[in-house]
């Protein structure tokens, strides 16, 4: 549970934070002004696990991140999902984001040296821009310019053709025939067609759930983050 002395600004109300344990995970729900709700899942491990910060698409937090979160938690990574709510059209303020992450890392006993970002659609663009030298994986972020990518290393998974953004440390993988938000399953009909907001805004893109692409993407994201967040050798620790 977050300590009031450390996170007085974090708690929106006494009932805004709740923790429980589910299947070897400590689950925390709290909030941060200007960023919305924070959903934290920490594997029940004796050591400080790495943290993957998850930024949602324009629709806000939805169920599409669940399969990625489940896989990352199973591999010993903590996850922090933002649910901006009414703030979903605003870009995360870097200062507030840094404050929130510092507080979460301290209070949830996470490894601050091993932190990465994962984003969906617009959240993917934000992850690539906000990482500041940390690893980031972006799912269908469109084609952000290389000047907007601060992550290192970085992974972009896209429908259609690769973007070829050319940023240092960037790996890309394309899924020909897939659509934007291939992991967005609407209700009980996984093959349903719909349109969702484009990462860049201003238009909507066709979307069709594709379980096979989703399964492959989950594996690629997990492998990328597992390698990027491997433990720091003792001789390199400060």
Automatic annotation (TrEMBL):
**What keywords are assigned to this protein?**
Signal
The cross-references to InterPro entries, in alphabetical order and at most eight, read:
AB_hydrolase_fold
UniProt signal peptide: 1-18
Disordered: where is this region?
192-211
Reading the lineage from the top rank, the first entry is Bacteria
**Protein name in UniProt:** Dienelactone hydrolase
Classification lineage: Bacteria, Pseudomonadati, Pseudomonadota, Alphaproteobacteria, Acetobacterales
């Amino acid at each position: 549970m977050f300590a009031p002395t450390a996170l007085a600004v974090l708690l929106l109300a006494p009932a805004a934070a709740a923790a429980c344990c589910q299947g070897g995970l400590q689950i925390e729900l709290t909030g941060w002004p200007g960023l919305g709700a924070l959903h934290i899942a920490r594997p029940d491990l004796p050591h400080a696990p790495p943290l993957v910060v998850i930024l949602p698409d324009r629709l806000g937090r939805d169920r599409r991140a669940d399969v990625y979160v489940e896989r990352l938690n199973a591999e010993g990574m903590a996850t922090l999902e933002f649910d901006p709510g009414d703030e979903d059209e605003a870009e995360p303020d870097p200062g507030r984001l840094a404050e929130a992450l510092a507080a979460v890392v301290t209070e949830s006993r996470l490894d601050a040296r091993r932190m990465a970002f994962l984003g969906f659609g617009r959240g993917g663009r934000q992850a690539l821009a906000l990482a500041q030298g940390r690893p980031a994986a972006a799912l269908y972020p469109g084609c952000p310019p290389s000047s907007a990518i601060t992550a290192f290393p970085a992974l972009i998974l896209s429908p259609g053709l690769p973007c070829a953004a050319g940023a240092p440390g960037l790996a890309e993988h394309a899924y020909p025939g897939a659509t934007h938000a291939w992991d967005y399953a609407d209700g009980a009909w996984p093959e349903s067609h719909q349109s969702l907001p484009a990462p860049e805004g201003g238009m909507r893109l066709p979307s069709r759930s594709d379980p096979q692409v989703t399964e492959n993407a989950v594996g690629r994201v997990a492998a990328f983050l597992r390698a990027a967040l491997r433990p720091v050798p003792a001789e390199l620790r400060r």
